[in-house]
């Protein structure tokens, strides 16, 4: 599978429909792409910090990993750089800028410098706006993220995709049991009888 195809599968949210062995192979390639893409290519350090805080508020660490634990911010930067087109990328970056504009107007500081309660208030407002602007028509699976022109919808979509296509998100949250490259083959009749007797 080519790197571009891996990114397409991740970006369109079809990864979790793959068979477990195919999913593991794809996740391995995607995580390798993230390692190769370690330095930020689209997000500035300030934008990365903003995305990290927002993603962690969307999926905080509990008894399972949070968004930060699975590298959601790196994943989002990778998608913005190598998969999204210029209009979508610009929409996302404008949305990040708007978040700081909102917090500056309300609290006279950037989003990352706000208290958790203030940050949660901003996400609530963005969430309400997302609901009001959400498309009413469901898109066919694999046709792309249904975020329309809403930044927060895009951020949530990318955060959830990053989380549930990560190894920890898939195994610790979704409880996928992935056993790659294992084939038992045909067992002999005597092996089958022994197995029955041992039970």
Task: Fill in the keyword field for this structure.
199 residues; mainly alpha; 9 helices; globular
Descriptive report:
The chain has 199 residues and is an all-alpha fold. The protein has one domain. It is built from 9 helices and no strands. α4 crosses α7 (151-164) and α5 crosses α7. It is globular, with a radius of gyration of 20 Å. Mean pLDDT is 74; it is low at 136-144 and 178-183.
Residues in helices, as a percent range: 55-70%
Biggest beta sheet summary: none
Q: Structural class, please? A: mainly alpha
Q: In what range is the share of β-strand residues?
A: under 5%
Instruction: Give, in order, the helices and strands.
Output: HHHHHHHHH
Distance between the termini: 42 Å
Overall pLDDT: 74
Count of helical regions:
9
Q: How large is the radius of gyration? A: 20 Å
Q: Tally the structural domains.
A: 1
Number of strands: 0
Low-confidence sequence ranges: 136-144, 178-183
Tell me the overall shape: globular
Oligomer: single chain
List the helices and strands and how they pair.
Elements: H1 3-11, H2 20-36, H3 45-58, H4 72-82, H5 86-107, H6 116-133, H7 151-164, H8 167-173, H9 189-198
Helix pairs in contact: 1-2, 3-4, 4-7, 5-7
Task: Write a concise synopsis of the structure shown.
The chain has 199 residues and is mainly α.
């Amino acid at each position: 599978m080519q790197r571009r195809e891996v990114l397409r599968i991740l970006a369109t949210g079809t990864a979790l429909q793959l068979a477990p062995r195919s999913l593991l192979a794809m996740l391995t390639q995607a995580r390798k792409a993230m390692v190769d893409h370690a330095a930020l290519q689209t997000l500035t350090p300030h934008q990365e910090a903003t995305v990290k805080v927002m993603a962690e508020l969307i999926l905080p660490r509990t008894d399972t990993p949070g968004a930060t634990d699975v590298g959601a911010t790196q994943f989002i930067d990778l998608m913005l750089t190598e998969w999204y087109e210029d209009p979508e990328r610009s929409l996302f970056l404008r949305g990040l800028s708007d978040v700081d504009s909102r917090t500056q107007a309300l609290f006279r500081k950037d989003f990352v410098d706000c208290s958790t309660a203030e940050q949660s208030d901003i996400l609530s407002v963005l969430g309400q706006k997302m609901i009001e602007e959400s498309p009413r028509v469901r898109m066919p699976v694999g046709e792309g993220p249904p975020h329309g022109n809403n930044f927060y919808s895009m951020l949530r979509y990318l955060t959830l995709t990053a989380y549930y296509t990560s190894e920890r998100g898939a195994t610790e949250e979704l409880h996928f049991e992935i056993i790659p490259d294992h084939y038992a083959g045909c067992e002999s009749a005597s092996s089958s009888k022994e197995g029955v007797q041992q039970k």
